[in-house]
Write a structure and sequence with these properties.
Structural class: alpha+beta
Radius of gyration: 12 Å
Strand order of the largest sheet: 2-3-1-5-4
Largest sheet: 5 strands, mixed
Helix content: 25-40%
Low-confidence stretches: none
CATH superfamily: YggU-like
Strand content: 25-35%
Order of helices and strands: EEEHEEH
Mean pLDDT: 93
Distance between the termini: 23 Å
CATH topology: Conserved Hypothetical Protein Mth637, Chain: A
CATH architecture: 2-Layer Sandwich
């Protein structure tokens, strides 16, 4: 399970790690009609190499702070992907 902050209306969709170690996902999509959430789930599916159906938004449907479950990769595989993102 990932805990992250989503920031819609960004120039591009990308994952960043904040100085405190938290995850920030900048999303190109606007925060209306679920577009940002759909963009987030599609981006995470691509990032972790799973289908969109395997990525579930557990909480934070209307707030910037999200809890997301990714089915498929092990926790260790998820950590390996996240290690590529260092604090800015």
């Amino acid at each position: 399970m990932l805990h992250l902050k989503a920031k819609p209306n960004s120039r591009r969709t990308q994952l960043e790690r904040a100085a405190d170690g938290s995850l920030l996902v900048r999303l190109q999509a606007p925060a209306q009609d679920g577009k940002a959430n759909a963009c987030l789930l599609a981006y995470l599916a691509q990032l972790f190499g799973v289908s969109k159906a395997r990525v579930t938004l557990l909480s934070g449907h209307t707030t910037p702070f999200k809890k997301v479950e990714i089915q498929g990769p092990t926790e260790q595989q998820i950590l390996l992907v996240l290690q590529q993102y260092h604090a800015a």
